[in-house]
Amino acid sequence: MTTHSENKHSENKHSKDTVASNEGASNEGTHANQQGSQINTQGNSEVIAQTPELLRTPLQEFWHYFSANKGAVVGLITISIICFVAIFADWIAPHSFSAQNREALLVPPAWLEGGNWAYILGTDDVGRDILSRLIYGARLSLSVGLVAVSASLAIGIFLGLLAGYNKGTVDIVIMRMVDIMLAMPSLLLAIAIVAILGPSIINAALAISIVSLPHYVRLTRAATLAEMSKDYVTSSKVIGAGPLRLMFICVLPNCLAPLIVQATLGFSTAILDMAALGFLGLGAQPPTPEWGSMLASALQFIQRAWWVVTFPGLMILITVLAFNIMGDGLRDALDPKLKQ
Amino acid sequence: MFQFIIKRLSLVIPTFIGITLLTFTLIHLIPGDPIEVMAGERGVSAERHAELSAQLGLDQPLYIQYFRYLNDVLHGDLGTSLITKTPVVSEFLTLFPATIELAFCATLFAIFIGLPAGIIAAIRRGTLFDHSVMTVSLTGYSMPIFWWALLLMLVFSVNLGWTPVSGRIDVVYWIDDVTGFMLIDTLLSGEKGAFSSAIAHLILPSIVLGTIPMAVIARMTRSSMLEILNEDYIRTARSKGIAPWRVIMVHALRNALIPIITVIGLQIGILLSGAILTETVFAWPGIGKWLIESIGRRDYPVVQGGILIVATIIIVVNLLVDIAYGIVNPRIRHSR
């Protein structure tokens, strides 16, 4: 138990580049979950009273807590809309993302003087429809986020389980590497990686998944350490479960709650870092409709056409905000202990 | 206490070695031959190539190259810029004050807004003010700061014309570089209007760079204050009849500050990586812009050295924060 609490402490102090207490706090999700709503905190007495009849499956219980948080539901709806738009971009976008119209350069948004309903959010300096580029940009940002998060989640879970299951050298080596990576701000590390590999979307996604790895490793290791001391793990061991079965079938499912939360928050970091790299010219290269690189190429028109600068950034903000709010809501729903 | 410091230090050394390994590997991952990269398009003859690689130690095995590199680094030699031919360290030293100045003002902004906002939100929990603070804080935390910079520039510089668009000072002033800090140098120069010009140039970049730390500080202050306000001793203080503001400012805040100070210390990473974006937008001549430009110019020694220095600064600051935390809070010191 000492190792666990020590670890939780360092967890808290090391998560420099996320909101400080996210990870440490969500570690406790696993214990709390098993006891379900019984451990509920102050102020929700009526909810507890209804618990026995209303909340049957874990999923219903989860939805009950999640939907109580209105912000989180708004976040979920926003993300669903963005996902829908991204998937069906080919049908929704009014124009192609690369079609240039020489007749309509820097057309303002439709509701302004000189605007044109064919280009609802206006056009950029070479006459491309901004709305269509934003829609295709959503597809790009979400898929980069998905790739980066799943890659770092998979590798992070593997390394974390390995470190938590094997105390000793393996643990020390893995955690040292994680500490080194955490010592650098994620954007700086990503820039360093892209600077060497060369600027492109794929390298940026790779860099983002590498820099977000440490959080998943730490979380999985902390949760694994906590689970390993539980009776059910000991009994599976006694029955003769091998290490792989113990790691992936017994322990892993019980570590998932904090990982789900971190993965959601990881999406927002991935999208933000991707846009930052794109803006610095180290991510997607023009004419790819990536939100960050759209901003970078709009820089010189800031005085003449505010709309080319405003909308891509607004999309980044809305998407990142939606993922952050939903992540907070998920944490509260998956971890009744933390509810205020 | 001494033991605690030794323990913390012993964690820092492997981290530093790890970072040197990382920067060393980075340079070796660059596709192509380093000498050809240095020579550029002109190319080099075979003899000159052999001579150069002997001179630079590139004909040695990798581990020897690494120990040479480590030796150079520990002696403060981070190589020479391929473009300007000046040592990386001296380039860094001339640009660093600009970044410190910006980061310092950004931190001031973050503390002056974030701390009171968090305190008031905690006291007035559940009110409209509380909700607004939390919303602003969440938005600030999700903000793509390069876009935030552009927006502020669009409104305050382009439309309203209140602040200058970019740079550190108006071109009409010629300020001698005494300390490297524009605010101090302009005061020393005694030139009329120079100081206010420097301030005006600092406002927007500081707000932009301070936005994320402000959001984090406000959030942390609120949750830390909420926790403390529930403590028994606060109720005791109140029931003794101590003035409400005194209970909050003296009794509660003092204890709530411990985690807040740590969080402020840990913002250094956010500040330095945020500086890369902020400096690029505002053409602020600091190390962030320097790093990005060097990447663009393929000036690898600068990229390598710059990343190493920035990472080292972050580790050292985090170490100091940790030690300060141990001094302020004995529970941390004795828990391990």
Descriptors:
heterodimer, A: 340 residues, mainly alpha, MetI-like fold, 2 domains, elongated, disordered N terminus, B: 336 residues, 15 helices
Question: What features would you describe in this structure?
Answer:
The complex is a heterodimer of chains A (340) and B (336). With 340 residues, chain A is mostly helical. Chain A folds into two domains: 2-55; 61-339, MetI-like fold. Chain A contains 15 helices and no strands. Chain A has helices at 2-14, 22-26, 29-35, 45-54, 58-68, 70-87, 89-92, 130-165, 169-183, 186-197, 201-228, 231-239, 243-279, 291-298, 306-334. Chain A is elongated. Chain A starts with a helix and ends in a 6-residue tail after the last helix. Mean pLDDT of chain A is 78; it is low at 1-50. Chain B has 336 residues and is mostly helical. Helices cover 77% and strands 0% of the residues of chain B. Chain B is globular, with a radius of gyration of 24 Å. The chains are: A mainly alpha (340), B mainly alpha (336). At the A-B interface, helix 1, helix 9, helix 10, helix 13 and helix 15 of A face helix 1, helix 6, helix 7, helix 9 and helix 11 of B.
Report the portion of residues of chain B in β strands.
under 5%
* Tally of helical segments of chain B: 15
Query: Radius of gyration of chain B in whole Å, from Cα?
Result: 24 Å
Strand content of chain A: under 5%
Shape of chain A: elongated
What fraction, in percent, of the residue positions of chain A are helical?
over 70%
Shape of chain B: globular
- Could you tell me which chain pair has the largest interface and how many residues each side has? A-B, 51 and 58 residues
Low-confidence regions of chain B: none
Cα-to-Cα separation, first versus last residue of chain A: 26 Å
Q: How much helicity do the residues of chain B have? A: over 70%
The total beta strand count of chain B reads 0
From the alpha carbons, calculate the radius of gyration of chain A and give it in angstroms. 23 Å
**How many distinct helices of chain A?**
15
SSE topology string of chain B = HHHHHHHHHHHHHHH
